[in-house]
Design a protein that fits this description.
Length: about 475
Amino acid sequence: MSGSPEDPLDLFAGVEAEPAAGLEGEAPGPGQGPQSDPAPEPPVWSVSELNLALRTLLEGAFHEVRVSGEIANWTRARSGHCYFTIKDESSQLRCVMWRRDAVRLPLEPEEGMSLRVHGRVTLYEARGELQIQVREVLDEGGEGLWKIAFERLRRTLESEGLLDPARRRPVPRFPRTVGVVTSPTGAALRDILSVLRRRAPWTRVLLRGARVQGEGAAAEVAHAIGVLGGSGLVDVVIVARGGGSIEDLWAFNEEPVARAIADCPVPVISAVGHETDVTVSDLVADLRAPTPSAGAEAAVQDGTALLGLLQRIRPRLARGLRTLAERRRVQLERRKSRLGGGVRRLLDPRRSRLARTRDRLGPAGRAFLAPRRLRAERGGERLASAARTLVGDRRRRLGLAAGRVEALSPLSTLRRGYAVPLDGQGHVLRSVRAFSKGEDFTLRVADGRIDCTTKRIEREEVVG
């Protein structure tokens, strides 16, 4: 039977049948008729070869998968790798999460938790088991375990009263020393130092470097806070880090850092991330700053504010010193008067019973009273000397205090030849951008003010 050439089922379409050799009706003998080639046998695979081929096919076909289901049999091995199963009502898949990815998990998933895993399908060749190599674990809302861990820790700290606004301490207005906890190589430190140098260059800065992200970062940050707070050398501590993802900032959402901030004996400013980032350290700290630069601004007052304060304090301090000196002088005068009266009564024969007794006793009585009179006179002299020494010491201490106040006063800087430009409202003009050509301003010098007009503006590049 001959089929159509277009018929795909006819393997012999278009091939003419050859007449059979021999007589009609005879079966062809050996070697006389057409013979079909035997079908090739399939290759023989080893188990390892087949598993490797299947793994290659699976990984090529499923480069990235996202699977949702319930977590079961979660186990973290000593190596840090995590093994678990993800399942639904009728099926389950084995999963593995290598240590490099598992260290980023903020908490261990609980049995039955509905999650979504991201990874790739592969075959574990040694056992011939299908599995998913998971790189990321998210909750069904797509926010990961981070939000769950954040809320869990927040509720714990809130139940202990650590988030109560009433426990927050005020930041000192003019700290002598500021402690900083951040990465010594990060941009956050450069921003903080730049602001402190501009606003309060006299402020001392103590840095305790720490890693601010990655495995072990939370322990380092907590230790650094404890060291600075317990040193007795700082008045306030800034805990800072630049912006990043929630995973990058997670060290500041961990319990060791939160408790270190709560236990710190000095006020703590949390300056982590950008303005929209909120961490647990922000909630526990005494003051939350939206950026590291804002944290530095909150830690110190501007020099203009200090200048105004010193100008108001100076006359008050002078009045206080005069009042204190006058009070001490009056006290000394009263004591001197009482002492003089007592000595006169002791030595006056008309008023002193001792003197009358001495007269009645005669020479023997006078001999008895003479050394006592001498001791009384010497005691008076020693008392007067001690009073003079006390007054001199207090005067020296007042002089030293006045000298220190004078050294801190910006007016002393002006007396060394510096001047401060001010606008019409008395604000300090810090940059050429604050001046306009033809605009009037005031130049504050040590002994007065000078009215000036801007003639020309030249901008210079500042290096460093």
